């Protein structure tokens, strides 16, 4: 018995979305100030226009004041998934005005890529982009990355969706906003601290590597934002290759590894529970999968014989593998290298790493370490169950902050989400093949988009067909929100069309 | 759920299937119609493997193949189907003590006239080596006449070498092995017979 | 608390495996008689030797392990998986003696392919093979196919892993054999009836198409056995292409589609419950996936433009697609055509169909339609759950013979098995790529082996590397027994090594 949402509820949802758009508009003030500081008047105007559009939308949504100012759980989900889409449209305004995109669709693609911390780009002539626009690109990915953590902590793992029931106990909470505010505050505190520290470190490095003072500061700020959000945006078209610096690579590597760690784990460590690092299932799972994929990568490199030596392996191979595994997308090779220099096996290793992804409740995406751990434990349980006396109850647990017993709903949801990821990876690969891309390139880029990584073997760029761009915008969005928010939105429209009307109270 | 939605589902699926067939078959594939078969000067003999691996190259051209006729001569209205193999086994089959070639058979269907079919006396199999023939014909990657077969329509067929029966020498070591195994089996059978009463006794004891 | 297997367990397992091998030996009398009738003395000697070897093995097991009245569930699992391996090793003796295999491994590969109704083969010079040997190849595929249904009905869906719990109620039954016997009796009755009808039709068709009566009879028998068991073996190297006959193709198509139905559905339809056919979840799921795959295929064919009329689309496209979807592997195109004439999207459609596979409790492999249905309903349930008010309980059910409510345990089991298949397919594809095959070919053949289909895009050949052969044998076995076998054997060995010894019984 599903009820059609009332007019009141619709306004509530719109109000929520309006709030998000207001947030986007406020974010635009940062690049606005930047471009004013660097006297980039055109860019400043673009930002101003974008800001005004957001403001107007917000005011429109505020026009009808709802009586209650709090959302239910379901409304919250619709706000998140719908707001994500609307924010993409509004965020794309400065992009589109900048003249670096050949269509509004491209601009939307880049914004979605930014908000979902993916890192695929269709921007053209990146090396001549203004500081203001670069600031906007990186700020939105930083904010998007942290935004998803807030969403994950409050929604994805609390409700039916992730249903890990790790952060909240049984049942959903009716009131969403207080929760959101609490987790958001903590996340921003952690993130800003890291931002300051790493920017300082990177700045020094940049100056050492021969950059001027001011550009060094901007670049290090942007690199930290891109890496911490595991997005992989950089201010130059050559990505990390631009810097030709081992030190920069190692620093960004550690930033995105840290960024891909579960924020709940960050809390725990900040609160002094250091032993948690060793016991945590996600950390363990991450190590195992990194080890395995590194093994495959090295076998692949040995067979192909292009990259020799440990330092070359570390910089051209391992760096990109970890960048893929954490869902970042910073890269130190040309995208054509995946096709021509890596060899199939190494490409598979990177593809697998991307598909698995980082930790839950982090800025990383993909299957997530927690789910891999559950999968592994489930296999063990199956084996043990076959061999136990009929009456015995076989139980397994995973350790994530506390011990969690593998119960049917937990395992079911983990598997279900993994299968959903497999499906979007596969459909994307198929679609790419239908447009004539070679299978491994199509699958590489499809996995990259679905897992919000951002490495590309050459399919996704400004020249990709429009249909592919639309699919991959949706793929990034669905992968980022772990499908549930997407189902909520789909269901919401379904209900609008054919749900039963609520009886008057 | 009543059966009405089920029929609806079925009807829908059949409809969409039909549409997909039509769109797939006709509308999108118009370019397939424009390709005509191009006459090509009669060349030297080519191997069937070469033919299959480069089917886009030989499509519609006149080709010459040589090989052994295997299986059946299937006579139908307007002609007959034969299968011609030109793998190493068509020279010397495994049954004749030939070498392993690391492949399964490599052959192709040839559509021949009924008059040509008369010439073929022996087809290859376990007990016989088929006639060795030389076929000149048009190769079709996707034959429109035969529902998309990959085949050759023969223009001429010539029997190069008559087929012959393959003799199988009896392997004596297998006979000896069989005798030995029968002996072992017989002993074990007796032993089993002896053990059975013991086991029953044990069971009775336990009971 | 896993117990180390006791001496009695080991003896019971040995006895069970001996029984399985005896069955193989008895089966060999059929080809033995065939070759005697056809005057193939050398071939008949091969079968005599092999039958005697099986007999000897059985007798020595009886002598060593004693006699047992019944097996427990746990012993039965190990007998199933171990017996499969033993039967493969001994069943390969006639293959090996025939001199058509360049190594014993190749012979084992072919026998495993037969038992698991896969249909890949490494046999060389098939066109000069004796009738007796052809009878053996097809018979073991037929028997293996019926055998797996018995196993599926008694084990796979009763136990923890398949966890469908549709055929048996809660809990495992202690006594196994009476169950097995009653199930297998019913299965053989259905199969043999279809056999008589199918062979008669095929015989008439083959004679019409210009075969002699004697050869026509043998060929129709073999074709039926190959198609009904969804094995896909045929007595000539060109497979169905050899017959150049629309009629034969339509008949085999009908046979393997029937063979891919759930036997429980066959039971129901035979006992008058005809409406079941329309309501059954597997049938519906089959239609949906078939439709999707054929749509993709028509798009692919359209782009390629080679198969350009309705007859060609049906014969070259739909026939192979259905052969793939029912995991049969009969094919009327050259394997190179999948790569060159089909084009990537159509090839991917075939791969998708193979991966999804046929019905549960049939001779088909792959994910199985039942699981697809369960997963689909599970998505629906999740969406509805999100939309519903907090307190309401959302239930979904699937209809398979009777209505079954979806609970988390059911979905968990289904999702787990599907994931196992995905991993198996992927591992095989990667391994193939390691050995230098192009990815599309490697994945095609890997899916084909893992889902017990038997179509090949050209990887499986006598010259393929030995490690790959070994993996494929494993893949066919694991896929066929739905991974339960893998877990059972792994657990059995694990329990041997480190299980706790049972306290004195």
Write structural notes for this entry:
The complex is a heterotrimer of chains A (505), B (207) and C (505). Chain A has 505 residues and is mainly alpha-helical. Chain A is built from 19 helices and two strands. Chain A has helices at residues 7-37, 41-62, 73-98, 104-115, 131-156, 177-208, 213-228, 246-259, 263-270, 276-279, 281-304, 310-325, 335-340, 343-356, 369-386, 408-434, 439-450, 466-480, 484-498, and strands at 397-400, 402-405. In chain A, strands 1-2 form a two-stranded antiparallel sheet. In chain A, a hairpin with a 1-residue loop joins strand 1 and strand 2. In chain A, helix 4 packs parallel to helix 18 (466-480) and helix 15 packs across helix 16 (408-434). Chain B has seven helices and seven strands, in the order H-H-H-H-E-E-H-E-H-E-E-E-E-H. Chain B has helices at residues 3-27, 31-34, 48-53, 55-58, 88-91, 114-119, 172-206; strands at 62-76, 79-85, 107-112, 128-129, 132-143, 149-161, 164-165. In chain B, strand 5 and strand 6 form a beta hairpin. The radius of gyration of chain B is 29 Å and the shape is elongated. Chain C has 505 residues and is mainly α. In chain C, a hairpin with a 1-residue loop joins strand 1 (397-400) and strand 2 (402-405). In chain C, strands 1-2 form a two-stranded antiparallel ribbon. In chain C, helix 8 (213-228) runs parallel beside helix 9 and helix 17 runs antiparallel to helix 19. Chain C contains 20 helices and two strands. The two termini of chain C are 16 Å apart. Chain C has helices at 7-27, 29-37, 41-65, 73-97, 104-115, 131-156, 177-208, 213-228, 246-259, 263-270, 276-279, 281-304, 310-325, 335-340, 344-356, 369-387, 408-434, 439-450, 466-480, 484-498, and strands spanning 397-400, 402-405. At the B-C interface, helix 1, helix 2, strand 1, strand 2 and strand 3 of B face helix 3, helix 12, helix 13 and helix 14 of C.
